[in-house]
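worker-3 :: picked LuxR family two component transcriptional regulator
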Amino acid sequence: MKTSIIIADDHPLILKGLNDFLIEKKYNVLASAVNGKEAFDLIERHRPEIAILDIQMPFLTGLEIAKKSKELNYETKIILITFEKDEAIYNQAKSLGIYGYVLKEFALEEIEHCIDAVSKDIPYFSQELLSYLEAEEAPIEIESLTPTEIDVLKHISENKTAKEIGELMFISFRTVEKHKSNINRKLNLTPTKYSLLFWAKENKSHLK
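worker-3 :: tokens ->
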């Protein structure tokens, strides 16, 4: 059985389209909701592996549901689907531990890739969104990185693990972890589980 999922969107056509698509692809869609309160009730009742939520919904937004779920330590991984290309919303989503962020205009093209990544514990953020938010100039901190550290970041942006990076660069796992620690320090990042992954994906075009 594929990943268990609940979905929520207050727009009936989008909800039906997403529901039909996921069922056609043999996903285990447990239930659907038309507002945030119903969506949170479904998460509490079913504890699905993944919840695909619209950001803007009546009663509770997707972000508010994510916040409540995080406070209650629910293990459901949340994917947001939205038309919003807003940096503040994106940053808030990251801070709440959102696993996926997909733009609605690309939802049916990207949702399978997103679910696949999230099921493997890898966050997925729409490349279209990242490209839109990307600053024209490279962050000044990049200048402090060595060529080896840049290479490590390139591999991280491609979802490579420390073990895989070590094999590709012919260095030990421990050396990779040391590079990651140095990069976090130079970029002034809080060393959370996905801090380098988010930074690397957001700045991928500058990692030449």
